[in-house]
Amino acid sequence: MYAIETEGLTKIYAKKKVVNEIDLKVEQGSVFGFLGKNGAGKSTFINMLAGLIHPSSGSFKILGEETHQSHKMGVLPDYSTFYDDLTALQHLKYFSSLLNVKLAKSELLDLLQRVELEDAANVKAKKFSFGMKKKLGIAQALINKPDILFLDEPTSGVDANAVLTIHRLIQDISREGTTIFLTSHNLDEVEKLCDDIAIMNEGVITVQGSMQQLRDKYQNKLIVAIKHTHVNETQMRSLRSQLEDLASVVEWGQNLTTLTVDGEWLIPEINRSFLHANVDVFRIEVDEPSLEEIFIKIGGNQRSA
Fold first, then answer.
1. pLDDT at 294
2. CB count, 10 Å around CB of 233?
3. Where would I find the ABC transporter domain in this sequence (predicted)?
4. Which of 93, 98, 173, 187 has the fewest CB neighbours in a 10 Å radius?
């Protein structure tokens, strides 16, 4: 049984598929990283799983059940809302009552200590920094001791010290067996914390697998940028056919094409492909990118196989 399983999950706003037929499986007890740029559809996806919005089509299961499992989930939304005149402790007491979870004051204080807010227990939220609010949001998400914890951009906009605190907390929670679904636009963060990842772009998953699988698949790739004469539709079709088995096309352009290839030995053959299509090549630039650069390029322009 998977912690999370989706099939064709789709959300449409104003005739646009913000989330487009996503099939995804998340192992129990894993930390799953969901990467993507702002506007990629990450928050919409996580909000459907958390039961905050309804999908337009498709289905999903949480811990094997299709019915909403709010008592088994904790959620940190991208933007948490707090009441200015309530203290951290009062917030946790209030949210525990909303969840119908009875916790003693000592247990609420333990939650605050866990997120390093014990010294701010009686401080009103209006005096909190953005990072403190993020930590309070995580404490709130842990009130019901969830089996699955959804964290939407937990370190976005916070200072370096808060990032370290949140990272340690995620690792501690994971060691306790909780499944964590983490959205982020920071590959370094995901690489540090996550067992498996998926990259979303414009509502579709473009890359998916374990961190090790993705390193093995992409780390030794080269990115080749080719400056060439204007390409018409006939030449484009010819190039697509010839390059299909040589390289992954990251970006087509009328005068600039970017590819990923397995090695430099393929470049002469790629050059010949352009010549066969009657396209003159002005310049070829080869780059050995970081894993993050490859994910940014491939993740943003290819659909997952």
1. 66
2. 7
3. 4-227
4. 98
Final residue before a domain boundary, out of 185, 208, 231: 208
The model's pLDDT over 44-69, given as tens digits with 9 standing for 90+, comes to 998 899 888 999 999 999 999 887 76
User: Do the domain assignments include residue 299?
Assistant: no
**Total of domains in the chain:** 2
Quote the pTM value.
0.76
CA nearest 26: which of 48, 2, 62?
2
Residue 248 sits at the vertex; the CA angle it makes with 275 and 299, to the nearest 5 degrees, is 140
Q: Are residues 105 and 198 in the same domain?
A: yes
CA dihedral 48, 54, 55, 59 (to 10 degrees): 80
Which DSSP string do the residues of 63-76 spell out, in sequence order?
Answer: TTBSS--GGGEEEE
Helix (H, G, I), strand (E, B) or coil at 121: coil
Q: Is residue 217 part of a domain?
A: no
| 3-class SS of residue 213 | helix
Residue 159 has pLDDT above 80, yes or no: yes
Tokens of 171: 């690792």
Across residues 201-213, what is the average pLDDT? 84
Q: Furthest-apart CA pair in the chain: how many Å? A: 76
Q: Structure tokens of 14? A: 């104003």
Phi first, then psi, for residue 68 (nearest 5°) are -65, 130
Task: State which residues form the domain around 249.
Answer: 222-288
Question: What letters, b where the CB count within 10 A reaches 16 and e where it falls short, cover 183-214?
Answer: bbbbbebbbebbbbbbbbbbbbbbbbbebeeb
Type of residue at 121: A
Instruction: Please check whether residues 132 and 260 belong to one and the same domain.
Output: no
Q: Could you tell me the CATH number of the domain that includes residue 51? A: 3.40.50.300
